[in-house]
């Protein structure tokens, strides 16, 4: 049986949240550079230049790529054969995630962007709680993916419960409409995560999972959805919103769609919008 | 697309020169503020009380920076999305605020207010907070320290780069830019 130390989990997370916030990963940089070639608008080109320059400075100076260093969102695959070693005073796996997040956001001079109540809005002061999606899987895997999710892009996300008759066209129009309505707000060029199927809450989770696909811009293994991704990217980039909404060819860097079985009466669709500062990082123990 | 260098505080004449799409570099002092600080400011106005800052001729930068590393005045400091301050901006314009810096579109009330009070709405590049921090030379919390990243700071900037989105003539770069590049 594999034994995983909670202290090790905590320490890995402490480093992970910082690295993700300081270093724009190569797959993201590659897509941005590819899109830079396609951008025609002078303002759009200037924005992309600044985004790439920003990435160099953030990495070199260990500064947040963006001042919104996000909610700390984790997707965890925990193998049912893993034994957790409760060391260094850590009583649970959840504590290890919270402690790692707390320590990483403090040590890295990252912003604390969580309020303890949605209406009363007092900052928790340490960027916890972390938002953790647990999945128990067979075997002894321990896989963690982190996304630092900023508020500006998250606010532009949407969910809709379609009648199945709306079909592919209904879903695609909804995705394009959501990107269009978001306009300049979510820091385009954006990444669009789409979840189709499941149920109300599951479609939203799928949309976020779709954002995590690596490398950025790779397509769904089902050619039906891969084609949908290509059509959606073209339609969104034809909107003309452009980098930072100042007009241009590149409104989105990628569209990534995930689908899941659903009820005979339902066709939920969720669109999770992500900014160009796509901070996703994984580790396995 | 013209380029301008302006210094704060700004006058009506400075604002009159700016057109949507122009690039500007600001030198001088800016005030920072976002959701919670604006809420507090507007409550004071409603109660007829004095504000902790005099907004006349000033520019407010919508930002909640990351904490400063030792030796730096500020951390990463890019713009936040401006529409959340739409309901507050016209009141501050009426008190003499000349400009706001953020990202993303403003509502019709704000655009009308810019025309009426001779103001301007500027954008900095969202998600370029590390780069932008290099144009900030000093930062000092001057009100609401309990708000942490949302406190009001006075920051000294040098050649702080922005683009004019909404000018005092009704120009709107977001609408104009989109129209130019959209395909059917």
UniProtKB/TrEMBL annotation, chain B:
Q: Which Gene3D superfamilies match?
A: Fe-S hydro-lyase, tartrate dehydratase beta-type, catalytic domain (3.20.130.10)
Which residues span the membrane?
none
Which Pfam families is this protein grouped with?
A: Fumerase_C
- Where the record annotates domain Fe-S hydro-lyase tartrate dehydratase beta-type catalytic, the positions are 6-176
Keyword check for tRNA-binding, yes or no: no
- The entry's keywords: Lyase
Looking at the keywords, is Kinase present?
Answer: no
Q: Tell me, what is one Gene Ontology molecular-function annotation carried by this entry?
A: hydro-lyase activity
Q: Which family does it belong to?
A: Belongs to the class-I fumarase family.
- The protein in question is named Fe-S hydro-lyase tartrate dehydratase beta-type catalytic domain-containing protein
Q: Which organism is it from?
A: marine sediment metagenome
Its taxonomic path starts at: unclassified sequences, metagenomes, ecological metagenomes
